[in-house]
Write a structure and sequence with these properties.
Blueprint lengths: L2 E3 L6 H23 L1 H12 L7 H31 L4 H8 L6 H12 L7 H10 L4 H13 L2 H11 L1 H24 L8 H5 L7 E3 L3 H36 L2 H8 L6 H9 L6 H13 L4 H13 L2 H7 L5 H25 L1
Parallel strand pairs: 1-2
Helix pairs in contact: 1-3, 2-3, 3-8, 3-11, 5-7, 5-9, 7-9, 7-15, 8-9, 8-14, 9-17, 11-14, 13-15, 13-17, 14-15, 15-17
Length: 350
């Protein structure tokens, strides 16, 4: 039986103050976002005095525009997503997935992976918790693939740099990969490739269940914004600086032949490069944006980005504690193959 943790009583004036601050912050966010472009142009061409259309001017204006734009989008969307995530604790996720069969379970697990808190350090306890709850191995992998692959930082930055269509394609392809890869792993019957001690762990009593007020949820969401943005802002700046250099100085012809649709080997090369390369999504996507502007194909750059984010080296190392080498290799192979097929599909239809 799960224990209930009562929420601390919220005084009405304190709650009202929180709501007013959220409203004022929302208005300030909208105003700031509306004036990014004129401010960037004034800084680059007015204050600094760079020549319009020059390589340096284009690069600097790109940098001044993208940095505040991405950070504003990141702040707003992480707050909204974190607010949603307060409704999905690990214990609640386990309860929702319990008893789900393969197929429907894979779909449900992948959808939950989008909104459930997840990081590399939580991979092992989540995996053990799912196994001891009787959730099938393939369903567990659908969750473990979707949670990091459909990354909120990546989603926000893709939306800000490319629009809702590309962001939607990213979510749809990530879900498809998680569902299909998890189903394949489940069909291979690889339970014997899980370390023996995992099966010996017995599920204990339920964890603490919290009843949160909206003030509690807002405060937790703001805490997530400070934590996530505080960790990735430097990656954003560095990534956009690299992207600005590509935007201003790299000719289109230099990239079309390497990462364009005509280069059949570009997708597997991008995935192979991304598998061992661990990087924050905030540092990868501005570079992806600049590459696409110079003629790189969408399928190729998305395959690269998803291999970097979805096949996180720290996560693989940590999962080795509960998975035997054969299952780790199959996990990497199935996921990498699914990402490559997705890259080829996008290149073919877009």
């Amino acid at each position: 039986m799960a224990k209930t943790l009562p929420s601390p009583t919220q005084a009405t004036p304190a709650a009202l103050r929180v709501y007013v601050l959220v409203g004022l912050a929302t208005v300030a966010w909208v105003i700031a976002y509306a004036y990014i472009q004129p401010l960037a142009d004034w800084l680059a061409y007015g204050l600094i005095g760079l020549q319009t259309g020059s390589h340096l001017g284009e690069s600097v204006a790109f940098f001044f525009y993208d940095v505040p734009k991405v950070l504003l989008l990141l702040t707003g969307m992480v707050f909204a997503i974190s607010l949603l995530r307060t409704f999905f604790s690990p214990e609640r996720t386990r309860a929702l997935l319990g008893g789900k069969r393969e197929g429907v379970g894979n779909i449900f697990a992948a959808l939950l992976g989008i909104v459930t808190p997840f990081c590399s350090c939580s991979a092992v306890p989540l995996f053990i918790g799912f196994v001891e709850s009787g959730i099938p191995l393939g369903v567990t992998f659908s969750f473990l693939i979707a949670a990091p692959t459909i990354n909120e930082v990546a989603l926000v930055m893709l939306f800000g740099l490319f629009g809702w269509k590309v962001a939607g394609l990213y979510v749809a392809s990530g879900l498809a990969i998680a569902i299909v890869a998890g189903f394949i792993i489940g069909r291979l019957k690889l339970e014997g490739q899980v370390e023996d001690f995992v099966w010996q762990i017995k599920a204990g009593p339920g964890g603490v269940v919290e009843h949160l007020t909206w003030v509690d949820r807002i405060q937790r969401a703001w805490g997530s914004v400070r934590e996530i943005v505080g960790k990735v802002w430097l990656y954003v700046v560095i990534g956009i600086a690299v992207g600005a250099g590509i935007h201003g100085y790299v000719p289109e012809s230099a990239l079309v032949g390497i990462m364009g649709k005509e280069a059949w080997w570009s997708v597997p090369a991008a995935v192979l490069l991304g598998v061992p390369l661990y990087s924050n999504a905030a540092g990868v996507i501005p570079v992806v944006s600049a590459l696409m502007e110079k003629g790189a194909s969408l399928g190729t750059v998305l395959a690269f980005m998803m291999s970097v984010v979805g096949l996180s080296l720290p996560e693989i190392i940590i999962l080795r504690r509960v998975l035997k080498p054969r299952l780790i290799a199959i996990f990497i192979g199935v996921l990498a193959t699914a990402i490559m097929l997705t890259g080829y599909l996008f290149n073919a239809v877009l």
